[in-house]
């Protein structure tokens, strides 16, 4: 499934940001953006799965520094073309499931935008461990993602034995691909993330959720 997801987003690189253009989501999107900027203000941020740099471009002016990573070079090539504060943002290839360990003081925060929903439940503990290893124990974690909204979200196609929900998406070439897309409740987030973090706080508006915590 990881390979499927990687290929799916690689071929969507040129059109990926169209998902942020839906008119009905603009108010909620702006609210989340403001909250992310406030949460990451003056932090040394490790961003995972940065994609086209949509969120990097938005929070980088508030951050002290940003290292934005993704598994797809095609995504990073687009991200690198955007405007950022001078000498504050760097990009690098990295697999979330094999992140390099940080050096002491290298980062103070980790950011994951619209990534957690694509992580299988049975792999979430490993991903949290990777965040802690890469950003450092005691670092601040900020995650944002989608709520499921009937009539707006892509219909859930099936639920597997582990409780992961899946959607069918259309690729640019017209092929259909199945992707993991989970929509966790607050209680599930607290239970799962509470094993690896403390001081968990969750905010939701209609279309999006945001979670902050401190990694153990």
Automatic annotation (TrEMBL):
GO terms for molecular function: polyprenyldihydroxybenzoate methyltransferase activity. InterPro entries: Methyltransf_25, SAM-dependent_MTases_sf. Residues 45-135 form the Methyltransferase domain. It comes from the Bacteria. Keywords: Methyltransferase, Transferase. GO terms for biological process: methylation. Coiled coil: none annotated. This is Class I SAM-dependent methyltransferase. It comes from Undibacterium parvum.
